[in-house]
Amino acid sequence: MISFKNVTLCDKPWVDEIVRNENSRSADYNFGNIYIWDRYYSQLICRFGGRMLTKLRYEGSPAFVFPIGSGPLRPAVEALREFADSRGYPLVIRGITAEHREQLEAEFPGRFRFEPETKYFDYIYRAEKLATYAGKSMHGKKNHCNRFEAEHDWRFVPLTRERIPGCLDMIVVWNEENRDRLDPSIRYEHDALIRAFAAFEKLGLEGGVLYADDRIVGFSLGEMASSDTFDVHFEKAEIDMNGAYPMVCRELTRMLMEKHPALQYINREDDMGLDSLRQSKLSYKPEYLLEKYIARDNDEHDSNP
Question: Residue 59 pLDDT more than 90?
């Protein structure tokens, strides 16, 4: 029987190894996201050969994450099945990409039924497009940046431990000013951000800070999700300052492209099913949406999780 454990920073080396072997552009698997959202999802992890098994709670119900990594898939899934049976849980697997779905169907024909989780589709962008805002469809973003550059004495610098207090001060004001329009789930995002800042160096996070007239007006941070994709965990900017958001996005991408020559894509994560966030992410013209599915075992028994 597999034995799950709480997520700690000590798990990063072996999780990173498995994530590198998986090499997925999905935002679901990199260690930083697992760690900073741990309190929200109550995640437990376990190494199973060359794969990682993950248990979480989603909207009060137990679920598992697709067992990423290398090596045979069947034993890992059967181990999840055995664990679920022992607890009286249904076998529900989340975070399944189209590639994972094919793997499950090939290994277990007809065993699972799949449902798309559109609010968790990741928005994937070409890094080059975000770094330049070239083309007619991005003309508005470029104009906003031009106006910002003309109106402010600005600079974009790497996020460091010394600059985190200023970012925290900015986010406190940001939350106050946007309280009425924010989804209640923002409190969980704030907790995740605090965890990210607290373990910034140990998590290997990267980011940048936008100054305008010597004042912090935006910042962004994340980590490499795969060999060619950077996952943006957080991006915040003053909403009322014209061009602040496009500037943070553009400048972070430029900084990352210089640091990571193999970088081709930026994952700006999902829209959580919020229409305002969906429209914002679509306005940056994603290259494609990385589909996610939930799989339910057709042999699932009735139980009370």
Answer: no
- For residues 112 and 92, the answer to whether their CB atoms sit within 8 Å is no
- Tell me the C-alpha distance between 252 and 256, whole Å: 6
Domains of the chain, residue spans: 5-121+291-297, 122-269
pLDDT at 21: 96
Same fold, 5-121+291-297 and 122-269: yes
Residue where the block lists tokens 């800042």: 197
Q: What is the pLDDT of residue 177?
A: 75
| DSSP-derived pairing of the beta strands 112-116 and 265-267 | unpaired
What's the chain's length in residues?
305
- Of the pLDDT bands very low, low, confident and very high (cuts 50, 70, 90), residue 174 is confident
Taking the mean position of all CA atoms in its chain, how far away is CA 10?
Answer: 21
Q: What is the pLDDT of residues 138-155, one digit of tens each?
A: 999 999 999 999 999 999
Residue 221 has pLDDT above 60, yes or no: yes
* Closest to 171 measured CA to CA, from 222, 123, 209: 209
Can you name the CATH fold of 5-121+291-297?
Aminopeptidase (3.40.630)
